[in-house]
């Protein structure tokens, strides 16, 4: 059981009960001129305090065990609902999920929707849907509840205001009445002097009378956090190792805007602390935020969580992965026919391995093998070709019955077939399965199988060569076999009937091998290449007799193909010059 304590001295509005982690006595920062070294479980904190405006803090974690001693591991994924779930965000969620599950902890989902202009309910629903589709079930959060809610930042404003007031009363923050024009002027002066664009501290030492005068005039103000003038912060990141910042580059920063809305870094710190988050696993782009957040943790007397900053996912050109590189959101890959288990497997390998050459993992296997110590700090390249290959592995790992049903549903839902199950679907899948890595591949493969681009093929240079190799003679003999009923009767017997017929047909023409099968393929399928010809032609025949293909596909039945051969102007194809483009030749 976790030891919990209600934060003393703070009244929470709206009848909300907020439970926060009991603050360790040894984690409180005492402002006195001395050097202290303390240990909080596996986290070592070194604090050097010279004055109230000068200090250093160093937090390091000895391994990836729980730095909150015997407390349960609690991690969080905190997306902003301003768009779709990016694959980078999905990987961060996955690593948090795997760490929590591998440690017997809790995976918390928190919606960071303080950006009121960009946050939408639709985006939030899309993020939740994508996480659920990936199988990353959260233990606490929207739709689930929990003891640490609310789990949307927009519903926690009273909490942020109460903590801001506490910091104001303690002197850790102050009211800043600077106008936007004044702040811009400060930036310009700093730029001219080639100094960092930090706040000058104009209102940091204002008297009570000066503050009251501005308040009486109704001058808008922000809350600024007092940053020590000297000192540094050092953390031992679980992935990146030791990371340090000097405080003199920061300047006093805003935690509450003049409209009463809290700033991101303040919200995150308060949320992580009051939700008892023990490990913050997030993207490396949040690494600079750690300095501000550490100062807020200290000022509020909260224990620091362990930090792990995951590298970015990069495009093949090693730039940050973006829309210009193709699909980047989980929803896009779902619509493209990828399986959730393949997405999970592939994302896990972007920066992590189990130390072997194994690459195929189920979610359960990942939970069993995951260790934060094996996450690489280097950027990971997103390889869409490898993702497709991996999806093919997971697709073929499905039970055959489930796989055929999935493919059948795809064929019906895409409008190719009228039915989603039956012997035709089973045989079509078995014929085409070698080319299916993504479920939507099945749609293209079946469409290609059912198509009859005879004129385009014959207009090509390779097709015209066949005219010189006796294609017309084979066509005439094929039509004769159709007319006397031998050909269609053979197809009624399935592939065995085809094999008997084609053997006898070749013998009658004194043809075999390529000289026999290439002309037949062109005449019956309209293509020069394709899957097994006998099985293809039997399926095409059955598609016509069963009427399983939808009208909008424009399917040409086998009988229609044979009848159309009677109308072909073979000489017209002979006269097409080799340099004529395919589309133009098809209409010559």
Automatic annotation (TrEMBL):
Ranges for domain Aminoacyl-tRNA synthetase class I anticodon-binding: 496-542
Signal sequence, start to end: none
Molecular-function GO term, any one: zinc ion binding
Annotated EC: 6.1.1.17
Catalytic activity: tRNA(Glu) + L-glutamate + ATP = L-glutamyl-tRNA(Glu) + AMP + diphosphate
Subcellular location: Mitochondrion; Plastid, Chloroplast
Domain Glutamyl/glutaminyl-tRNA synthetase class Ib catalytic: 72-389
Cellular component terms per the entry's GO annotation: chloroplast; mitochondrion
Record-linked InterPro entries: aa-tRNA-synth_I_cd-bd, aa-tRNA-synth_I_codon-bd_sub2, aa-tRNA-synth_I_CS, aa_tRNA-synth_I_cd-bd_sf, Glu-tRNA-ligase_bac/mito, Glu/Gln-tRNA-synth, Glu/Gln-tRNA-synth_Ib_cat-dom, GluQ/Sye
EC supergroup of this enzyme: ligase
Domain of life: Eukaryota
GO biological process, one term: reproductive structure development
Entry keyword set: Aminoacyl-tRNA synthetase, ATP-binding, Chloroplast, Ligase, Mitochondrion, Nucleotide-binding, Plastid, Protein biosynthesis, Transit peptide
Similarity-based family: Belongs to the class-I aminoacyl-tRNA synthetase family. Glutamate--tRNA ligase type 1 subfamily.
HAMAP family per UniProt: Glu_tRNA_synth_type1
Function description: Catalyzes the attachment of glutamate to tRNA(Glu) in a two-step reaction: glutamate is first activated by ATP to form Glu-AMP and then transferred to the acceptor end of tRNA(Glu).
The protein's name in its UniProt record: Glutamate--tRNA ligase, chloroplastic/mitochondrial
Lineage start: Eukaryota, Viridiplantae, Streptophyta, Embryophyta, Tracheophyta
């Amino acid at each position: 059981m976790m030891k919990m304590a209600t934060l003393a001295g703070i009244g929470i509005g709206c009848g909300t009960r907020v439970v926060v982690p009991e603050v360790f006595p040894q984690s409180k920062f005492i402002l006195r001129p001395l050097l202290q070294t303390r240990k909080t479980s596996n986290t070592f904190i070194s604090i050097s305090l010279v004055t109230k405006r000068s200090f250093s803090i160093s937090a390091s974690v000895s391994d990836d065990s729980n730095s909150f001693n015997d407390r349960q591991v609690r991690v969080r994924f905190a997306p902003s609902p301003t768009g779709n779930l990016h694959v980078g965000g999905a990987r961060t969620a996955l690593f948090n999920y795997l760490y929590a599950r591998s440690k017997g902890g809790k995976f918390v989902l928190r919606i960071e929707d303080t950006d009121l202009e960009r946050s939408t309910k639709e985006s939030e629903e899309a993020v939740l849907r994508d996480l659920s589709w990936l199988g990353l079930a959260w233990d606490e959060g929207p739709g689930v509840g929990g003891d640490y809610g609310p789990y949307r930042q927009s519903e926690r404003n009273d909490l942020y205001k109460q903590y801001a007031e506490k910091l104001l009363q303690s002197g850790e923050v102050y009211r800043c009445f600077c106008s936007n024009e004044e702040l811009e002027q400060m930036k310009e002066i700093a730029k001219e002097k080639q100094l960092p664009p930090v706040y000058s501290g104009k209102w940091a030492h204002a008297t009570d009378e000066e503050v009251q005068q501005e308040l009486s005039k109704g001058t808008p103000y922000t809350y600024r956090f007092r940053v020590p003038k000297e000192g540094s912060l050092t953390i031992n990141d679980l992935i990146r190792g030791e990371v340090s910042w000097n405080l003199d580059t920061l300047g006093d920063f805003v935690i509450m805007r003049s409209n009463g809305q809290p700033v991101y870094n303040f919200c995150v710190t308060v949320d992580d602390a009051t939700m008892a988050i023990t490990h913050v696993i997030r993207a490396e782009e949040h690494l600079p935020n750690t300095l501000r957040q550490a100062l807020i943790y200290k000022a509020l007397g909260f224990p620091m969580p362990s930090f792990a900053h995951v590298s970015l996912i990069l495009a093949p050109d090693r730039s940050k992965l973006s829309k210009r590189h193709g699909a980047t959101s989980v929803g896009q890959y779902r619509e493209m026919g990828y399986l959730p288990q393949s997405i999970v497997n592939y994302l896990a390998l972007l920066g992590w391995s189990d130390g072997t050459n194994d690459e195929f993992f189920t979610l359960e296997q990942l939970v069993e093998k995951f260790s934060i110590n094996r996450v690489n700090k280097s950027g990971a390249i997103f390889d869409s070709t490898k993702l497709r290959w991996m999806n093919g592995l997971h697709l073929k790992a499905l039970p055959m019955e489930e796989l055929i049903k999935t493919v059948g549903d795809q064929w019906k839902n895409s409008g190719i077939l009228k039915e989603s199950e039956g012997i035709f679907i089973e045989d079509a899948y078995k014929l085409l399965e070698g080319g299916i890595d993504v479920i939507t591949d099945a749609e293209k493969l079946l469409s290609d199988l059912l198509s009859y681009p005879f004129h385009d093929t014959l207009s090509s240079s390779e097709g015209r060569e066949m005219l010189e190799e006796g294609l017309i003679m084979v066509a005439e003999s094929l039509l004769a076999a159709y007319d006397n009923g031998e050909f269609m009767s053979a197809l009624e017997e399935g592939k065995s009937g085809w094999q008997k017929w084609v053997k006898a047909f070749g013998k009658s023409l004194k043809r075999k091998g390529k000289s026999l099968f290439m002309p037949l393929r062109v005449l019956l399928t309209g293509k020069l290449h394709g899957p097994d010809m006998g099985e293809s032609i039997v399926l095409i025949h059955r598609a016509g007799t069963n009427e399983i293909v939808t009208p909008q596909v424009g399917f040409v039945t086998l009988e229609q193909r044979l009848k159309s051969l009677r109308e072909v102007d073979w000489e017209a194809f002979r006269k097409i010059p080799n340099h004529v483009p395919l589309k133009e030749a098809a209409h010559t």
